[in-house]
Amino acid sequence: MPEFLLTEDNFLSALNKFSEGDIERSCLAEEDQVEFEEISDGYDSDPDLDYVPDEDDLLQEDNNTLEAIKEIEASQFVSTPSASKRVKRNRPRISKVLNNKAVQDGDKIVCQIDGEDGIVVANNGFLWETECNTSVAGKTPTKNVVHIRAGPSSTARQAYSPLECFQLFFDPEIVGIVLQCTNEEIELQKKNYKNKNFDGTVKELCLEELNALFGLIILAAALKDNHLNTTLMFDNTFCGDRYKATMSERRFKFLINCLRFDNKTTREDRQKTDKFSAITDIWKILLKNCRSSYKPSKYLTIDEQLVGFRGRCPFRMYIPSKPNKYGIKILMMCDNSTKYMVDARVHLGKGSVPKNISSAEFYVNELISSIEMSNRNITMDKWFTSVPLIQNLLIKKKLSVVGAVKNNKPELPSEFVDKKYKNRKIGTSAFLFRDDMTAVSYKLNANKIVCLLSSMHHDNTISNSGKPKILMVYNETKGAVDSFDQMCHNMNCHRKTQRWPMCIFYNMMNISIINAYVVFAHNAVRNSRGMWKLMSRQDFLLELHKQLTKPWQERRMIQQNISRNLKRSIGTVLGAKTGWPNILPPPQPDQKGERRYCSFCDCKKRRMTTTYCSCGKAICGEHQIKMCPECN
Q1: Distance CA 128, CA 118 (A)
Q2: Is the pLDDT confidence value at 4 over 50?
Q3: What does the alpha-carbon distance between residue 92 and residue 102 come to, in Å, rounded to a whole number?
Q4: Segment among 51-60, 147-156, 215-224 with least mean pLDDT
Q5: What does pTM read for this prediction?
Q6: In 10 A of CB 72, how many CB atoms?
Q7: Percent above pLDDT 70 for the chain
Q8: CB 247 within 8 A of CB 590
Q9: C-beta atoms surrounding 285 within 10 Å
Q10: Neighbouring-strand partners of residue 308
Q11: pLDDT digits (tens, 9 = 90+) for 478-525
Q12: Which entry of 170, 424, 461, 584 is 20 to 30 Å from 132 by CA?
């Protein structure tokens, strides 16, 4: 994939392409998600996400980083018709805006809710006000001011190569656990391979070979070979020499089958209290690394990801609105600006949530534990949003929320969600206010009322398109997790498997790769001034594959028991830049030993010889081939 030259002129085009195309498409598959028109006005580049004392310098640096990432990612998704080619919609023309109330040809597009003394009572007795506090309207409240600079943490700022960025998340502790548990499984499965021809296939795994295995999985993701049959993958006429130069097809299949992530002997006891025990150790380490390696911006999104899986799993779910339909549900929190995955929790089914709290509130409190008291904003869909949760996050956690809410919530008055109230017209908005929280209902069409709650806003501002500002902010910040999931599907490490721990492990690799690319892009932009070239995500994966597999390929090159053609393939993969002819072993003198029959002569000749090949076979003069080291 060609490199992109990022300049100041194409920054805005990249941002528009990402916000209007990518996020709009990624939200179409959202379960019970309201369909809104995407409007891009660069909201997520608000300078409040930087440190106040050094605002000018940091704003320029962070904007350059975000634009670079969005330019690369926008080019990798399926193109959509440009905004100029879309069908024009009949939008209400706003001729006048006065005191936060828009007027169109004499008809107000704000539907006023009637209440006694400006108070509206909900079905459960919850009180709302019909008028907002105009003294604070238009100002940035203290609760929305963020004094944290978004970007990699202090340790992650020193990672410059793809391998260094990847190892921030897939650290030596995770690799060590996988190596130890896999070797234990290899020892158990060796008993099933009594033929000596399989000695090379079932041998013990070393660190370099395990990294090479990860490199092959990443290569298959970059080239979208992850669902190819291994016979095709290791056929150099179809997929080149890289797979075959790293390891044999039989060894690859054996190692994939033997990958384990926990102690098998103690698993049964741990499963009584933890359904996720087969992979929980390395999963927790990965989440800890994700939280500690990056400081998110002030807008984050909480949503769900369904990792496709149709095998046996005690917490497999069926969600018909998702592309995969069957799979493992993961609740995620992602940074809206860069789609960095900050934290995640796996939904383990019934019994995994305490009885005195709802599932939505439990998972939200778990996900926001690393960003409490930071004044950031969380965007959520209707499965999570509720009035008690918003009040709790604002008062106790110092976090604001913008979220869609179900129309049947008891805190919402009946007239607020009634489609026929006062013969409401399409495109009208109704507002209610309570302390530091605002509710808005927007009539999307004749049969649809969309309700949203926000603790970030406290006004009834209507945008130039006739839609409330709360709805515009929700549209711009709701798609981070969906975009992250789309990036996972675009270059996916997942391979066909019947073991759910392997399914989670492949998704962990996807998470590590995407987060590593975000850190890599931040560091590359920070250390470049003016013009720079940033590699695409596919090139990032290919370079990561090379760095993971090169040590094992060089070690394999000097082994004595591989064929001449395989050495040539490895040399081709390593290339002239590594000087691969120089790493060949020096020419070995003829190995003299006891007289034996030539391994290649037929039974009639039965020649005896004392010369042996490097592979250990006896070879007579007729079957010897002389060649120089370079040809070898």
Answers
A1: 8
A2: no
A3: 10
A4: 51-60
A5: 0.77
A6: 24
A7: 78
A8: no
A9: 17
A10: 327
A11: 999 999 999 999 999 999 999 999 999 999 999 999 999 999 999 988
A12: 424
DSSP reduced 3-state for 400: strand
Q: How far is CA 323 from CA 261, 447, 613, in A?
A: 28, 27, 56
* Residue partners of 263: CB distance under 8 A and separation at least 6: 181, 184
**Would you say how long the chain is, in residues?**
632
Terminal C-alpha separation, the chain:
34
Give residue 312's identity as a one-letter amino acid code.
Answer: R
Query: What are the beta bridge partners of residue 403?
Result: 380, 453
Whether 65 and 525 have beta carbons less than 8 Å apart is answered as yes
DSSP 251-310: HHHHHHHH---S-GGGHHHHHTT-TTTTTHHHHHHHHHHHHHSEE--SEEEEEEEEEE--
In the structure encoding, which two tokens stand for residue 371, read together?
């960003």
Q: Show me where the domains of the chain are located.
A: 4-152+274-490, 170-260+536-557, 586-623
Rounded Cα distance between 476 and 236, Å, is 46
User: Is 379 exposed, middle or buried, given 0-12, 13-18 or 19+ CB atoms closer than 10 A?
Assistant: buried
Determine how many CB atoms are found less than 10 A away from the CB of residue 627: 9
* Phi and psi, residue 344, nearest 5°: -155, 155
Laid out side by side, the sheet with 107-108 consists of 96-98, 101-104, 107-108
Tokens matching residue 38: 């995407």
Q: Are strands 377-380 and 400-405 parallel, antiparallel or unpaired?
A: parallel
Give the 3-state secondary structure of residue 29. coil
Q: Mark 243-263 as b/e (b = at least 16 C-beta within 10 Å).
A: bbbbbebebbebbeebbbbbe
